[in-house]
């Protein structure tokens, strides 16, 4: 079983996350005020919106990588294990390092929204610069069946190098992902309070469901001895909050919440790796639905 933080997608922040409740305006860059005068407060709000929009670029890159890592774990993990064991391959499967590298570099060119991201981001990009070309060379080698002409010489050269780089990549990626997750959670908690203060009951409930459901998965991943009864009670409470949201625009999210709750209960009962992956896949599907839902349209 792999750590939760490396596997899950994240909910994007709304562009209005850091603004006052009075100006909750959804995830668009629409005008906050009507009028001709630009006050310092409006400029500050726009600066915060830009910061959130930039952060969301990183969120989307990490979430896409995490989703694909779970989806193709059935292929990527055997490749790694067989290379470790010195077995010959005919097919090479690996995470999409190149796409992650491209999306993170594109975001970095625009800027780094929070200081605590800089060091782990630089370390991650440095390691991606090392592992990406090795993974691409191995992929081309197996697709072109180069092993039929060199008696696996290139595999013997690059296989151990890929394994070493991958094992270095894992904790470096985890550090960056954990920083992202902490920033995201902190900002989403701020947003929850803003939604409550603004009297947006459905939107606040949706945000509460997200934070509580995420906390349950973190607990499952971090605690060796789970209090199954306590978790089931929390899942029931989360389901009640979700099912109490009256807007039909939340219906697809509500369905995915219930599916995630079911997948969590299945995993707690079996403790099997396949059910763990299904649990994370269900959660990631829920996050995908949540990210396409405009919170301001729920009330």
Secondary structure elements and pairings:
Elements: H1 40-71, H2 73-84, H3 97-110, H4 118-143, H5 147-150, H6 153-197, H7 201-222, H8 228-243, H9 251-270, H10 273-291
Helix pairs in contact: 1-3, 1-10, 3-4, 4-6, 6-7, 7-8, 7-9, 8-9, 9-10
SS content category:
mainly alpha
The domain tally reads 2
Q: Which percent range describes the beta-strand content?
A: under 5%
Uncertain runs: 1-6, 13-37, 39-44
Distance between the termini: 39 Å
Q: What's the overall geometry? A: globular
Tally of DSSP helical segments: 10
The chain-level mean pLDDT equals 85
What can be said about the biggest beta sheet?
none
Descriptive report:
This protein has 299 residues and is mainly alpha-helical. 70% of the residues lie in helices and 0% in strands. The chain is built from ten helices and no strands. It has helices at 40-71, 73-84, 97-110, 118-143, 147-150, 153-197, 201-222, 228-243, 251-270, 273-291. α7 packs parallel to α9. Mean pLDDT is 85; it is low at 1-6, 13-37 and 39-44. Keywords: Signal. Residues 1-25 form the signal peptide.
Features:
globular, 70% helix, 2 domains, disordered N terminus, 10 helices, mainly alpha, 299 residues
